[in-house]
Design goal:
- It is built from eleven helices and seven strands.
- It folds into two domains: 178 residues, 3-Layer(aba) Sandwich (Alpha/beta knot), CATH 3.40.1280.10; 64 residues.
- The protein has a seven-stranded parallel beta sheet with strand order 3-2-1-6-4-7-5.
- Helix 1 runs parallel beside helix 2, helix 9 packs antiparallel against helix 10 and helix 9 runs parallel beside helix 11.
- About 7% of the residues have low confidence.
């Protein structure tokens, strides 16, 4: 099942061969969009091209972004692949097939699978920029996967989850242009999914209002924001709903300022 609407995002990849091997396995599954966040090499590095082995066009078309937030801003669904679970990093999925993360989502939604650094993965802040956190069920004694292996397993799992959910399997050349995939164009209806940037802005607005209203304990604030982030993800927040939430928060601020 070609994954034309699924992108692979690699954060600060250090080894060009890893990016090349990731591009090769992406082509195996029909995923074409590679996003490199502050990579330590040029996308068309010779080693990267050698490991791509027939998929150098994916490297050539890779988008380079300076930060993870900018890299995932326009995606409808973002999933961080991580092996770490902590106080502020709840894993919503520990499974070989992430069906629960895709259930209720439309097949055409733009999905970003986000992978951390080879040596130390993500920071908490980076992981929390994504809607969901998913850990592949690797051995606890030796959980780390090679980056390209993790990309291949994740893409295969997403393809299987889509099949189980009855999503149509497009032809390999389904007429969707790279420009259309990158443009982020939506139908005129405001019921389309909120982008990750819209979700992040709503959460930032909520955090500001919490602090302004006296909710100043940073640990409790972070925990509360994490809960609301998960709520938004489960609800598949739409563009209209994100505007509504921010409108409520603006009105709350206005009323408080005018009472003072």
């Amino acid at each position: 099942m070609p994954l034309r609407h699924v992108a692979v995002v690699l954060v600060e990849t250090a080894e060009p061969g890893n990016a090349g091997a990731a591009a090769r396995v992406m082509k195996n599954f029909g995923a074409r969009r590679l996003v490199l966040v502050a990579p330590k090499f040029e996308p068309m590095d010779g080693m990267a091209r050698a490991f791509a082995a027939g998929a150098s066009e994916i490297l050539r078309g890779a988008v380079v972004a300076p930060t993870l937030r900018e890299a995932i801003a326009q995606f409808d669904l973002t999933i961080a692949l991580t092996g770490v679970q902590g106080h502020h990093r709840v894993l919503e999925c520990i499974d070989a097939i992430p069906t629960n993360l895709l259930k209720g989502r439309r097949p055409e939604e733009r999905i970003a699978l986000v992978f951390g650094r080879e040596e130390n993965g993500f920071t908490n802040e980076e992981a929390n920029l994504c809607a969901w956190r998913w850990r592949l069920p690797t051995s606890t004694a030796f959980p780390s996967l090679n980056l390209a292996q993790a990309v291949g397993i994740a893409l295969a799992a997403v393809a299987e989850a889509r099949r189980q959910l009855g999503h149509p399997a497009p032809a390999v050349d389904d007429g969707v242009t790279e420009r259309a995939l990158r443009s982020g164009a939506h139908p005129k209806s405001k019921d389309y999914p909120a982008t990750q940037e819209e979700v992040t802005r709503a959460l930032e607005h909520l955090r500001a209002e919490m602090i302004a209203s006296g909710y100043e304990d940073s640990v409790r604030t972070d925990a509360a924001i994490s809960v609301v982030r998960s709520l938004f993800a489960r609800a598949a927040l739409t563009h209209r709903e994100s505007q509504f939430v921010r409108g409520l928060l603006r009105q709350s601020r206005w009323r408080r300022d005018h009472r003072a």
